[in-house]
Specification:
Oligomer: single chain
Order of helices and strands: EEEEH
Number of helices: 1
Largest sheet: 4 strands, antiparallel
Structural class: alpha+beta
Strand content: 25-35%
Radius of gyration: 23 Å
Distance between the termini: 63 Å
Helix content: 25-40%
Shape: elongated
Length: about 80
Amino acid sequence: MTRRIFEFRCVKDHVTDRYVDDTVTTIICPHCRNDASRIISAVRSSLDGTSGHFPDATDKWVKNRESHMRYERKMGIGSTEG
């Protein structure tokens, strides 16, 4: 049996996570003592804006970089020419 962290939600919408065997589908809610069922957690992801594989992420990265460069030029930061 594999142990993993899963999220559980009870009938009162309390959400908690537990490190349990992957066969466990119900636990007791630590907040209200009702049964809590295992739920599918939202996936967190971040696109790499520098690779070029994700055009929207790349456009955002370029826009942020240009804005940062304008700020540095305005403030006289980052220039090591001499």
